[in-house]
Amino acid sequence: MPNNNSPIGIFDSGLGGLTVVRALQELLPNESIVYFGDTGRVPYGSRSPEVIRKYAREDMDFLLSKNVKMVIAACGTVSSVAADIGNTLDVPFLEVVSPAAKYAAEHTKNKKIGVIGTNATIRSGSYEKVIQSISPDITIYKKGCPLFVPIVEEGLVSEDNIIALETAKHYLLPLAEEGIDSLILGCTHFPILKPVISKVLGSDVDLIDIGITTAKATAKYLEENDMLSTQKEGKCEFYVSDRTAGFSAVASRFLGRSIDGEIERISLE
Ligand code: DGL
Fold first, then answer.
1. Which tens digit of pLDDT belongs to each residue from 129-146?
2. Fold for domain 98-211?
3. Which pTM value belongs to this model?
4. Which of 61, 142, 163, 205 is 20 to 30 A off residue 87, Cα-Cα?
5. Which residue of 188, 190, 209, 250 sits with most ligand 1 atoms within 8 Å of its CB, as the best mutation to test the pocket?
């Protein structure tokens, strides 16, 4: 049975969920984390809801086998089409859509919010359902940005990378023309591209980082439910379903420390 010092289980199709890991480690450094990146099957966002749900179930089962005290779907796509599966687990389950959507609805000034995500997320309408339940007079401008996912997985993330910049202009300039004051980075891969996105949109658009909003929601949940760790320092274990090398290079850069020796390749079969 998990207890307060058991790890938090976090999963994504690849590197994206590290945006949640990084924000959570900053906020709650004494929590242990087991991370699973399904790098053998990334991307999820171009697949059908049935396939995404099957993958999500397997990812959650893997984390449960690690005796986690909570599961976080650090994936906008899974959160959008398979959150109901998470809600049936024996441990608490958190997803990334609701915290970001609530934050956006509460902070927009001109009531024009942009939402970007994978195609599966955008098709699901998950973010606007939450936003419009809070404030029906908000207008949402949305755009699927699937190419951002391989760009991040390939590590093409610096603010002067020409491929990342041109792709961002292609996807985002039409949203800027609508006059949005906030943009939900609705896929966990996207906050890794924040420097590029902010170069294209300028500093007037509030970029809502779902890594940060999810980490804050997690801290609140653990506190309110008396589930915070009592350890001095948390440990982190990383698992992937394909070669570890590519993941390790970009992940280490993003987390600001080498995680080479901490990654293990596993098979979900
Ligand atoms: N990082 C994921 C998300 O938040 C999935 C990206 C993908 O695999 O397509 O949607």
1. 999 999 999 999 999 999
2. Rossmann fold (3.40.50)
3. 0.96
4. 142
5. 188
